[in-house]
Amino acid sequence: xxxxxxxxWGSVARWLHWILALAxxxxxxxxxxxxxxxxxxxxxxxxxxxxxxxxxxxxLTFIRLVWRAINPTPALPAETSRWQKIxxxxxxxxxxxxxxxxxxxxxAHSGARSPDYSDFFGLFHVPQFTSPDRAAAxxxxxxxxxxxxxxxxxxxxxxxxxxxxxxxxxxxxxxRMVTGEAEAG
Length: 185
What we know:
- By secondary structure, this protein is mostly helical.
- The protein has helices at residues 11-36, 43-70, 82-112, 134-169, 173-178, and strands at 119-120, 124-125.
- Strand 1 and strand 2 (124-125) form a beta hairpin.
């Protein structure tokens, strides 16, 4: 099943979910490491790679949102309370919003620093929408880091909710994202 149904996630949605999950968690760890290594000559290289992966995450997130818009979103189990449905909706929206915000702040930081991180893996230059400005670069970077921590908190909440569904509710919500299995019944 490539497309989503009202009962389960299709393979495209599942692949995008897991690729983005691994990339985002990896990028948060990589970003933390980059900001805690002592100043060294290859620091620009690591930041350049971080930026390039960030551009990919932004693109994949956009693709995921488009895919989600043209496919049904599987319904939560019938016994899910109204407040839980609201929390699920708001937390998923917040995840998408903050992923895009973190990536856009990183992109703004790239354009505001000199030299920028616009060379995409040596293949082409990513257009920058900010101009070189040292003070602005620092502000964008500070906000990029702050919202990366907000994103980490949202991911932790998402993981706890998944564990709750899997081990407490045992309602097969997690199985739909792992295997594409539709809800029984």
